[in-house]
Specification:
Helix content: 25-40%
Distance between the termini: 10 Å
Strand order of the largest sheet: 8-7-6-5-9-10
Order of helices and strands: HEEEHEEEHEEHHEE
Radius of gyration: 17 Å
Largest sheet: 6 strands, antiparallel
Strand content: 35-45%
Structural class: alpha+beta
Length: 200
């Protein structure tokens, strides 16, 4: 399952997922919000695709139309309201263990800059206990770890067949706030998933 299929899976699973919609030439974006616009292609080469993050409605609309021209017939252009990440990370789930990596603020700090505040390993032989900690043990609270693990169980159940065949499921997540047009956090913090994929 690549990024394209992963976005559809996020809609069907009972995970707190970004409320993405497909961008079309008729899409009108709310001027009072900032927006993220992304590409998801049907073929498997879907890494490092163009995106625009935290843009106003005019910029996001222009980028959406540009991406529609570039990727017509190859996948979908999607958009959702921009959020401010307080903590972000990746979950790597396979049959024998769950690995949770977390970083301060945006996920780019982990995947692009190589920073990491903590890595937590949970063995499938005893999913009630953490078998390994690397880094700052206090970075994720017990409640945050519990919330992430609860959703890991949902993912494991959905992808049981893939996992039994040796695949892993990768999920990207953040504890985040909604934001206004001035890029200021609004409302309560929440956990959100915004990418899901299987890898061999």
């Amino acid at each position: 399952m690549n990024k394209y299929l992963g976005f559809y899976q996020l809609k069907t699973l009972s995970l707190p997922a970004v409320p993405w919609k497909q961008f079309t030439p008729e899409t009108k974006l709310d001027e009072k919000l900032l927006w993220t616009v992304r590409v998801a292609v049907e073929d498997s080469s879907d890494l490092n695709l163009p995106r625009l993050i935290g843009a106003n409605s005019d910029e996001a609309s222009r980028k959406g139309r540009e991406l529609l021209d570039m990727y017509s017939g190859r996948g979908l252009i999607l958009y959702y309201p921009y959020f401010i990440a307080e903590k972000s990370g990746v979950m790597d789930i396979n049959n024998s263990r769950i690995v949770i990596e977390a970083v301060d603020k945006d996920l780019w700090n982990l995947v692009t800059c190589g920073r990491k505040n903590v890595t937590i390993v949970i063995s499938s032989t005893n999913e009630n206990e953490i078998s390994e900690y690397h880094g700052d043990r206090s970075f994720l609270s017990p409640d945050e770890i519990c919330e992430i693990r609860r959703h890991a169980a949902v993912i494991k159940g959905k992808f049981r067949d893939d996992l039994s065949e040796g695949s892993s499921v990768l999920a990207e997540w953040s504890f985040a706030f909604n934001t206004d047009i001035g890029n200021k956090p609004i409302g309560h913090r929440y956990l959100v998933f915004y990418e899901l994929r299987t890898v061999k």
